[in-house]
Amino acid sequence: MSKRLSFAPLAATIGLGLSLIAGSLVAPTVAQAEGEIRIAEQFGIVYLLLNVVRDQNLIEKYGKQEGLDIKVDWTQLSGGAAVNDALLSGSIDIAGAGVGPLLTIWDRTHGKQNVKAVASLGNFPYYLVSNNPKVKTIADFTEQDRIAVPAVGVSVQSRFLQYAAARQWGDKEFNRLDKYTIAVPHPDATAALIAGGTELSGHFSNPPFQDQALANPNVHVVLNTYDLLGPNSPTVLFATEKFRNENPKTYKAFVEALTEAAQFAQNDKGAAADTYIRVTKAKIDRAALLKIIDNPQFEFSVTPKNTYPLAEFLYRVGAIKHKPDSWKDYFFQDAKPLQGS
């Protein structure tokens, strides 16, 4: 009989240093005035651009060019549902989450708060990994298996799993594997998968957690998102139309800061690795981290790539009600428009 999941001690065993602030516990506040910005990030290398922005005080730098002393507040959440709730409650101004949560909140606020993406955080393959030797493909998961995702049904990992299920069994069965998914933060899910002995046998992960799990010989890749969609931007930053319109200088400073951070991370992987360790205090070997970051499939860029196929899929299966004509419908188009997809 499978053991029940107990994650806190497991995370400690591999020193991932979970520091989680639940979005539901953040009290709603009024919109911030020009010169203040509150940013929510999650876990993993996919948020490295925000680590660089924070480490180098880039928002403050570009704020001064606009005549502002910008106050920046950083929050760490887990899961797109918590991030979306925090944004809609007015607790944060910039939300960091997957394309799945973005499309959910874009659809939900269409014609109202009009939440849209600001930029991509880069292109990265996400892996669905498992410690169950019987699970070779998604078709091998059974009632005895549980698959960890950041947020059930909403996270980009959940949406990728639905996309894969639709390809395997048809659109009418797109949510066939949802009943096996549970919401667990990446650090805890990684620790549980490595330790074994629980019902959690799968984890739809992201770097560096998927790489840490795969260092264990009992863990293997079941699904690679690049095999589903090709190179794509799984994680993005988004905001309300109100914040963008009422804080043009702060918003511009943030976009400029993010653009510089992308150039820095893409051009100096060693410095990017040092930044990640310094800011996140992750207990990960620098050489191992650099090997992950130096993956030729990784691209640190603010330009979204290949996001529209997922958007079209979610509309097709009824997961969102509004059909975007293109990726430009759910991304803000600024003075320097992105050339994405």
UniProtKB/TrEMBL annotation:
Record bears the keyword Signal: yes
This protein's name: Nitrate ABC transporter substrate-binding protein
Gene3D superfamilies linked: Periplasmic binding protein-like II
Source organism, top-level taxon: Bacteria
A Pfam family it matches: NMT1_2
Cleavable signal peptide: 1-33
Organism phylogeny: Bacteria, Pseudomonadati, Pseudomonadota, Gammaproteobacteria, Pseudomonadales
Keyword tRNA-binding in annotation: no
UniProt entry keywords in alphabetical sequence: Signal
